[in-house]
Specification:
The protein contains 7 helices and 10 strands. The chain is an alpha/beta fold. It has a single domain, classed as 3-Layer(aba) Sandwich (Rossmann fold). It has a 5-stranded mixed barrel with strand order 5-9-8-6-10, surrounded by 4 helices. Strand 3 and strand 4 form a beta hairpin. The two termini are 33 Å apart. The mean pLDDT is 95. Bound molecules: 1-O-phosphono-alpha-D-ribofuranose and uracil. Uracil binds next to strand 5 and strand 9.
Length: 249
């Protein structure tokens, strides 16, 4: 097999289970939780490492920002044989009760992105893999992590003029938080018949940052960093739970 054109990997490089952070730097922070790892490729926003967690083989590939690059990563990873994907991302809460570092687990997502519309009509739902959500939910209960399961919203433009109005609208519709890849990945995952779920670390306080227009990414950096550690552990342990359940007895 030729190397895939963007991720620069072949099927020999890619495991069945893949973690998908947006940020290439987060790939290296995941590496800190693995028992062994090596970097396979790093091209544009797509950094791929391969390693082991306990006895489970695992790949980590960054998707970059937004649906367009996320579809490239997912398509090329599927072409290399990957079957299970957990996005470990960050999000901005749409609800005041969600604190910095709390984890949002989207069971579905509003498709306010452009990339998924290139694939299928807007009334096709963006839904997570039930198997992965169940594994993530069971694992988070075991770990004692505070998580919020429900609907997220994925968008394409961080700085549009009416973002506050949109966030206020989705707040009134009980949407939990915004990111830029989940809806795209869920839509494409279902079309390609692979399993996809997201775990999103909340990095924004809805009342203070969104409604009052103050951005406190920096002040709450420690809480956000703790949230990122929790989402990595949760994703690895949920994958391990699934991996063990698949092993012949
Ligand atoms: O931290 P990541 O995983 O990149 O996720 C979020 O952060 C980026 C925007 O700052 C977008 O990609 C958004 O989805
Ligand atoms: O507010 C936020 C934070 C992270 N990601 C988003 O898409 N929005």
């Amino acid at each position: 097999m030729m190397k895939q054109p963007h991720i620069l990997c072949t099927e020999e490089d890619i495991d069945k289970m893949v973690l998908l952070p947006g940020d290439p730097e987060r790939v290296l922070r995941v590496a800190g939780f693995l028992d062994s790892w090596e970097e396979i490729a790093y091209n544009r926003e797509f950094r791929t490492i391969k390693g082991t967690y306990k006895d489970m083989p695992i790949t980590v590939t960054s998707t970059g920002i937004g649906g367009a690059s996320a579809t490239i990563a997912l398509e090329e990873l599927v072409a290399c044989g990957a079957k299970y994907f957990i996005r470990i991302g960050s999000a901005g809460a749409c609800q005041a009760y969600i604190d910095i570092g709390d984890l949002i687990i989207p069971t579905a997502a509003v498709r306010e992105d452009g990339a998924s519309r290139m694939y299928v009509k807007e009334n096709y739902p963006a839904v997570a893999s039930y198997d992965l959500i169940r594994a993530i939910d069971d694992t988070s209960k075991e770990l004692g992590y505070r998580t919020y399961l429900g609907i997220a919203r994925s968008h394409d433009s961080f700085y549009i003029d009416d973002e506050l109005e949109r966030m206020t609208y989705w707040n009134s519709k009980k949407v939990l938080g915004s990111d830029m890849e989940t809806a795209t990945l869920y839509t494409l995952g279902n079309l390609r018949e692979v399993h996809v779920a997201s775990i999103l670390n909340n990095v924004v306080r809805y009342e203070a940052d969104v409604k009052d227009g103050i951005n406190d990414y920096v002040d709450d950096g420690d809480l956000a960093a703790e949230g990122e550690k929790k989402e990595i552990i949760l994703a690895l342990e949920a994958f391990y739970r699934l991996y063990e359940s698949m092993m012949p007895i």
